Each structure stands twice: as structure tokens, then as C-alpha cells.
Amino acid sequence: MPRPSDFLETEPPSLSELLARGDLLAEACPSREVLKHLTSRWGVLVMIVLERRMHRFSELRRAVGGVSERMLAQTLQNLEKDGMVARVAYEVVPPHVEYSLTPLGREAAEKVRVLADWIETSMPRIMTHWEKAGSARAGDAVAHEGHAI
Fold first, then answer.
1. What are the chain's domains?
2. For residues 116 and 122, is the Cβ–Cβ distance under 8 A?
């Protein structure tokens, strides 16, 4: 017979617990798709830009240097499908669309930003490793803003 405590809501498992169980490591785990969308180069950058405020497509494209129109559209579609981004289309002439983070997207953006911030502050050490490995040749690495190669 179930006990009352069996029906109490519990905290979702932590990443460490999920990894220990192996769900994220399983090939068929559906969370891998979300992980791929959130941690792709463009996914991370879009999440960080949208964390500040709502943006129109053209504003996002200017804010995320180097992203093609096609890749930005695909990234936004994936993040919208995952429930991270809300898309609002206005029927005006000319039509325009605005993108913002959903509450779920805001939670995810906080986590993604922590990783991006760590990468930014760790770039001098990372670049030292690149140099030691001989991969900091012209063409292999792009000069990182604020960090000399």
C-alpha cells in the first residue's frame, strides 16, 4: 500500500544524479536534443542575448556576430520547440517578429551564461593550452576579444 510520503513532490534529480544513473549518457535519451540545442555555439549566444531583453530577428542577427540568417532561424525554431523561446509575430506592414525567453528559457539562460562566463574568464589559461598543443596557429584560432594569442 502506498504511503502518503510517496505522493509528495520531490526535487528533480541533479545533473550529477542523472549522470550517475546514466540517462544523459544513454543514446536514446531525449534530453540530448535539448542539450544539443542549448549548448550549440548559436544556441548559447542567442540565449545570452535574449536574457537581456526581447529582440527582433534582425536585432538578434546583428547582436550575434557571424551567424547566418539560416542558422539563426534554425536555432530559434529549435529553442522555440524546446519551450525556451517565445515567438510573437505582428501582422503589420512590414511584418515583424519578436523573440523573448520563456520562464523555462530564463532558467536555462542563467545556467548557460555561467558556462559562457567561465569560458570567457578562463580564456587566458585555455589559450596557453592551445599554444602548448600547437593549435594556436593562424586559421586554427580566432583572436579572442580582450585576449591576445
1. 29-133 (1.10.10.10)
2. no
Average pLDDT over residues 98-111: 96
Q: How confident is the model at residue 5 (pLDDT cuts 50, 70, 90)?
A: low
pTM confidence score: 0.72
Q: Return the pLDDT at 132.
A: 87
How far is it, in rounded angstroms, from Cα 86 to Cα 76?
9
**48 CB burial (10 A radius; 0-12, 13-18, 19+):** middle
pLDDT at 147 over 60: no
Q: How many helices (H) and strands (E) does the chain have?
A: 6, 3
Q: Fill in the DSSP letter of residue 11.
A: P
Cα 31 from chain centroid (whole Å): 14
